[in-house]
Design brief:
The complex is a heterodimer of chains A (about 110) and B (about 110).
Chain A: E1 3-7, E2 10-14, E3 19-26, E4 30-38, E5 45-51, E6 56-59, E7 62-67, E8 72-77, E9 86-95, E10 99-103, E11 107-112
Parallel strand pairs in A: 2-11
Antiparallel strand pairs in A: 1-3, 3-8, 4-5, 4-9, 6-7, 7-8, 9-10, 9-11
Chain B: E1 4-7, E2 10-13, E3 19-25, E4 31-38, E5 42-51, E6 54-57, E7 65-66, E8 76-78, E9 87-94, E10 101-102, E11 106-110
The chains are: A mainly beta (about 110), B mainly beta (about 110).
Chain lengths: ~110, ~110
């Protein structure tokens, strides 16, 4: 069964600190993996996209990694800011003729001043 | 401006009263999809469309209908809403297999 699991469910950190969010998946056939940021009550916005051959991709203070062998991805946030408070969702695409998006339940991050 | 729009943004209705939530995109995307988001469950796909006149069920299609008569529009229809359909709904669009662009969401309350 195609599945995406994220950890932790929620996380509280102080402004300026770093944090790492985890995503484990069992999706086949794997096409790509995306991290989205979702502010409360708003639609998700894409942060990064990674294909099978990519190990690392950065978008400003956000760095995503992908280990296709272990089927794990992480999102590292550097020097967190209050505006980073949001839910972060890992989405894996499967391509078996038609594209299927499998969503994780997200990690809710709260950055405190 | 490239965007996905949804209307209405907020809706309160009563059980059994048919309603339609509209979704429109101006990016000429082939793929469109509807999701519902409930606390602790994340985003769950209701229906999706690969192109005009091509629609398919997602993970939670019961109680919903869709149509794709034009490329830009993908309305979500609740023929007989029930309280368990109270949720936050998102429409999204993308080129095939590419990053999805999400609408602002429609918050629905069914009494």
């Amino acid at each position: 069964k195609n599945q995406v699991e994220q950890s932790p469910q929620s996380l509280i950190i102080l402004e300026g600190k770093n944090c790492t969010l985890q995503c484990n998946y069992t999706v086949s056939p794997f096409s790509n993996l995306r991290w989205y940021k979702q502010d409360t009550g708003r639609g998700p916005v894409s942060l990064t996209i990674m294909t099978f051959s990519e190990n690392t991709k950065s978008n400003g203070r956000y760095t995503a990694t992908l280990d296709a062998d272990t089927k794990q991805s992480s999102l590292h946030i550097t020097a967190s800011q209050l505006s980073d408070s949001a839910s972060y969702i890992c989405v894996v695409s499967a391509n078996s003729g038609t594209y299927k998006y499998i969503f994780g339940t997200g990690t809710r991050l709260k950055v405190l001043a | 401006e490239a965007q996905v729009t949804q209307n209405p943004r907020y809706l309160i209705t009563v059980t059994g009263k048919k309603l339609t939530v509209t979704c429109s995109q101006n990016m000429n995307h082939e793929y469109m999809s509807w999701y519902r988001q409930d606390p602790g469950l994340g985003l769950r796909q209701i229906y999706y469309s690969m192109n005009v006149e091509v629609t398919d069920k997602g993970d939670v299609p019961e109680g919903y209908k869709v149509s794709r008569k034009e490329k830009r529009n993908f309305p979500l229809i609740l023929e007989s809403p029930s309280p368990n359909q109270t949720s936050l709904y998102f429409c999204a669009s993308s080129p095939w297999g590419e990053t999805q662009y999400f609408g602002p969401g429609t918050r629905l309350l069914v009494l």
